[in-house]
Amino acid sequence: MALRRERTRHRSSPMTQPSAGLLLEKKKGQHLLKNPGILDKIIQAGDIKSSDIVMEIGPGTGNLTVRLLPLAKRVVAIEVDPRMVAEVKKRASGLGYSNLEAKEGDALRTDFGRFDVCMANLPYQISSPFIFRLLAHRPLFRSAVLLCQREFAERLVAEVGSEFYSRLAINTQLFCKVYRVCKVSAGSFTPPPQVESMVVKLLPRNPPLQVDFREWDGLIRICFRRKRKTLQASFKTKYVHSMLESNYKTWCSLNNQIPQPRPIREMIQETLEEVGVTNKRAIMLDIDTYFQLLAAFNRRGIHFVNVAHTPGQAPGEPTYAGIDEYFFYDDGDMDEGTGKGGKGKKRKGKGKKREQQATPMDIDEDDDDEDEDSDEDE
Predict the structure, then answer these.
(1) What 8-state DSSP symbol labels residue 308?
(2) What are the UniProt keywords, alphabetically (predicted)?
């Protein structure tokens, strides 16, 4: 009976294959979700209200779109492939729906406008920058239901101490709560991808946590550069000392403070001991502990961005500037020895504004010194 009811429910919006001559391009991540059971779970997770504006990223031929249209006030579908835009418009019109706005555009550049719920089928190569562009969007949306590559999704939902806990996980969870919805097999798509996928749900923190994201991410980059080392080891490199000392002296100069006559390494050690994380590893610390650590550094005038290059914004004040730009640089996980994550490729047009800043973004993964080498890795 359950199966029969499901078939009846979807009779008005049958699953379709692409129109004749509409070839799908795997290099563009074009894998159309065709499994009605998974589509049902995505709809259920969205908890869509009749007054909602739903933004759908990557509608393809509209298998999800036609299920959203009778539920939402309006559906705004953003699709990079003009052929798909025409296809989803044709399909919605054929079913008698007039509340669809389908437009051609790149999800990393197109203006989102106001929306309540986001639904997205994300190609792996844009997953991280899209999520952080989404989290930087204002006004806040209510929820997002995202279909991602499973390995990437596992890193989003990773808990403290787990294999996938990384900078990506902690920065995502800084701005939202992330939940697993369901796993999706390769056979649920046309054409089937070579990897499994997962649906996750994001609920933004409202109100957002008060944090200077530039400072926060600077700290997290240092800690997760070698996430299985102790924080004492992560902060022992010559580059980190040089960068923090430079930022400290700049901060003192701008605030008419006399720098303390002691090495920066002593101030760092004192800070780690105060928070009780000297011999802790990055993967074992939660968001609250990192907040305490950042506050302890800032109280001493130690900052993770060069304050001379951030006019009009005092370090430590809440700001979300740069959230969407930082993650064009890498996917948020500089994991040692696994071959996963890494620095990634810089996108064209990004990075010029940071050339003169002393920040942890300049850290080279091989920039170890003799002091760090003496610490245990595991």
Answers:
(1) G
(2) Methyltransferase, RNA-binding, rRNA processing, S-adenosyl-L-methionine, Transferase
